[in-house]
């Protein structure tokens, strides 16, 4: 069972390691890594005291494996979800034939027109599990799961990437590859 404190610290780490490292006076290297001692020191100065042991525990038990250490535990990075520029160094990987995207009902008219856009993130995030997509969709409103014809996209030359924690990334999903639910009246 992940404690409330762990969830809070994990959200703070996501903020630092994906979006605003400057909040604790750090910058990410090209691949998104930061030095662990400097991170802990920066957090301490910002009023968030985390020990190395606690950080290891948070990384190990995180529900979506959002963070990774280097083998020697000297550096840490977020596995995905950045808004700051980073090159995660992922290689294009063949996706399952079907992937899922969880969204909210009120976004559908615009997704119908433009397809899935990456918005503030570096990529559109897709999942190989419908259940995971439902949870992602709930964050934005009434959840809708869109089925994506990833096999066809790949055959037509689109690159897919898989993060360390199993999220599928793609640059854009044009509407023609999206299977929209037919009954949207309820
Ligand atoms: C929607 C979480 C209108 C898109 C999750 C989504 C995920 C459009 C929202 C990860 C659109 C962006 C990412 C269009 C896309 N018109 N709306 N043309 N194209 N959208 O949070 O996928 O907890 O940036 O459907 O588990 O919800 O952060 O992306 O609803 O893996 O680790 O615009 O975040 O992981 O929202 O979530 P987000 P997302 P973490």
From TrEMBL:
GO terms for biological process, alphabetical: tRNA splicing, via endonucleolytic cleavage and ligation
Keywords: NAD, Transferase
Organism: Hazenella coriacea
Record-listed E.C. numbers: 2.7.1.-
Gene Ontology MF term list: NAD+ poly-ADP-ribosyltransferase activity; tRNA 2'-phosphotransferase activity
Name of this chain's protein: Probable RNA 2'-phosphotransferase
Originating gene: kptA
InterPro entries in the record: Ptrans_KptA/Tpt1, RNA_2'-PTrans_C, RNA_2'-PTrans_KptA, RNA_2'-PTrans_N
Family in the record: Belongs to the KptA/TPT1 family.
Function: Removes the 2'-phosphate from RNA via an intermediate in which the phosphate is ADP-ribosylated by NAD followed by a presumed transesterification to release the RNA and generate ADP-ribose 1''-2''-cyclic phosphate (APPR>P). May function as an ADP-ribosylase.
Domain of life: Bacteria
SUPFAM superfamilies: ADP-ribosylation (SSF56399)
């Amino acid at each position: 069972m992940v404690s409330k404190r762990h969830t809070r610290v994990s959200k703070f780490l996501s903020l630092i390691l994906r979006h605003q490292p400057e909040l604790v006076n750090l910058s990410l290297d090209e691949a998104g890594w930061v030095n662990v001692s400097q991170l802990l020191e920066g957090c301490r100065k910002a009023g968030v005291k985390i020990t190395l042991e606690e950080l290891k525990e948070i990384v190990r038990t995180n529900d979506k494996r959002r963070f990774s250490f280097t083998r020697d535990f000297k550096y840490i990075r977020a596995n995905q979800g950045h808004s700051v520029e980073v090159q995660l160094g992922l290689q294009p990987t063949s996706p399952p034939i079907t992937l899922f995207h969880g969204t909210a009902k009120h976004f559908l008219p615009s997704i119908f027109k433009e397809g899935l856009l990456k918005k503030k993130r570096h990529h559109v995030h897709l999942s190989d599990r419908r259940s995971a997509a439902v949870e992602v969709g709930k964050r934005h409103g009434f959840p809708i799961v869109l089925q994506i014809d990833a096999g066809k996209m790949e055959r037509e030359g689109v690159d897919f990437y898989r993060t360390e924690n199993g999220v599928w990334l793609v640059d854009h999903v044009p509407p023609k590859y999206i299977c929209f639910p037919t009954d949207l009246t309820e």
